[in-house]
Amino acid sequence: MTMKDLIVSKDVKMPLGYTAWRDDIEQLISVSKLRTAISVNSSMLDLYWHIGQSILQQQKEKGWGHKIIVQLSKDLSSRFPDDRGYSERNLGYMKRFALEYPDFPILQVPLAKLKISLTQITWYHHISLFSKVKDMAERAYYICETTKNGWSRDVMLHQIECGY
Known about the structure:
This protein has helices at 18-62, 67-79, 88-100, 123-132, 136-149, 153-162; strands spanning 6-9, 12-15, 106-109, 114-117. It is mostly helical and 164 residues long. It has a domain at 102-164. The strands form 2 sheets. Strands 1-2 form a two-stranded antiparallel sheet. A hairpin with a 2-residue loop joins strand 1 (6-9) and strand 2. Helix 1 packs across helix 3 (88-100) and helix 4 (123-132) runs parallel beside helix 6.
């Protein structure tokens, strides 16, 4: 190796091509982290949907009321103290999530003939959509636009408020 084949990086001589190679590895790491985050989001939404579905089923079959959600929240928070997300309010959102999307993870909108993966946006996006958008086709539109444009929850809410 000659001096011409080396580059200097913080007082260390590195071979030519090192920077491009390192950049490729950094890109692999970044892509892997993104895939992991998407996978975690998908798994969390799946868990929340199943919890919500189970609450709906128990309330329907056994006639259990709201107090069961209060108790379940206490029990889950006690059993999984390091986990967030088992508050009474969030369990109510899980129930609503299962009620709103009975065909999870795919949202089928008959009029638009669309199939949308609900796992493409975060839990907090879904909670916001429940409270702001009642029409399922309109909700599907915002899910698509959020996914396509990479909107944060705040940007999505702004778009909803502006009637985008």
